Amino acid sequence: MTISLIIDTDPGIDDAAAISLALNHPQLDVKMITTVNGNVNIDKTTANALKLKYFFNSHVPVFKGASRPLISNPVDAAEVHGESGMDGYDFKSPTDEKISPMNAIEAMKNVLKESTSPITIVAIGPLTNIALLLATYPEIKSKIKQIVIMGGSSGRGNVTPLAEFNIYCDPEAANIVFNSQLPLVMIGLDLARQAMFSHEFIEKIKATNQTGDMLSQLFQHYRTENVHEGLKLYDVFTILYLIDADLFNVFDANVQIELQGILTKGATVVDFNSIEPNCQVVHSPISNYYQHAFLQALAHCK
Predict the structure, then answer these.
(1) What residue stretches are annotated with the Inosine/uridine-preferring nucleoside hydrolase domain (predicted)?
(2) By Cβ atoms counted within 10 A, which residue in 10, 165, 231, 295 is the most buried?
């Protein structure tokens, strides 16, 4: 049974890997890609989504979303992903691709409203678009099957000692989403830190096909924490989880977002002992099989 998806993203090198797998996997039906300000600015994240669409000759529509957080000042991660957000590969730019004038929030609302069955939202950037969707059109909540979020941490952060980048970028938006009472899955830093991809494994990715070669070139310019030990492909795990959730250890938890702390703004406060959980936290891999799962998914790409 195929899973219908909306991908909300800020490409981003690890976003590119997640989008590549999602656009080509037979179990997944991507209805649209929406872009958000995050790893780089909204014009660059939108351009990068279009480059990936063109690379795969995909007909999935791309819609431009929020250009800044709800309240906070914009930050970016160009030092991690490069100035363009996807440095390292010479993509052919679409020559006649025109972005729709409809904004991402309206486009998501329309697709959800018209769908005959609930759709999963995969959010692999700051949660600004999703928060605006829920706040503006609360009536479409019933059309959302679940929101699978790459963001947060039950331990240490990666942009501050306690905050993960996607949540830190727009904590107010994250607060709206985590308190939406929708089915949520949080895939945070914990999982990627325990499920790294070695540099030797990246060579296997490179040799798989044209997509693997493209991704391996991007990975050479990807500057995650402790990159000498291996790569943390955070966003990829949203797609691997949807393909086979049994590969991972998942726990119920109550997750709240720190909004006021001078030193802790954007932290995800994860209570695994709460009697009122509001999401499932994907915490660690069952085994190293996630690497094989990545190669299996990559094999569906060109």
Answers:
(1) 5-283
(2) 10
- Rounded-to-integer distance, Cα 29 and Cα 4, Å: 5
Please write the tens of the pLDDT for every residue from 52-64. Answer: 999 999 999 999 9
Q: For the CA atoms of 33, 225, 249, 298, what is the dihedral angle to 10 degrees?
A: 50
Total-model pTM: 0.94
What is the Cα gyration radius of the chain? 18
Q: Do the Cβ atoms of 51 and 37 come closer than 8 Å?
A: no
User: What are the strands, taking DSSP E only, across the chain?
Assistant: 3-9, 28-35, 62-64, 119-123, 144-150, 184-187, 248-257, 268-271, 279-285
Whether the pLDDT of residue 191 is over 80: the answer is yes
Candidates 1.10.3720.10, 3.30.1130.10, 3.90.245.10, 3.40.50.300; CATH matching 3-300: 3.90.245.10
